[in-house]
Amino acid sequence: MSEAAGIELPADLRATAVARLFEQTRRWGDGQMPPTIIDLATVQKSDSSALALLLEWQSRARQAGREIIFRNPPDTLKVLASLSQVETLLGWSTNLEENS
To answer: Of 1, 5, 36, 57, most Cβ neighbours within 10 A?
Structure first.
């Protein structure tokens, strides 16, 4: 697992893990500040719920006047973000090769 400011990112970042992480990070924006860097290198499995979680985290960070840098996104998340046209919201290039 990768750790980012107390957040443990599992290798399988799909619905069950996303729900757990969402609960753990609910207080971001309510006095607790989100981390500025989250490394996604350990994530091996992901789906649209993972993408939604990252977008939620970025939204909360921006509301707090911060921005999260998501490093080492797995290809599945990069493709989902590109298909959903939200890669720029996550700070990822529209060119998938540039994010490797």
So the answer is: 57
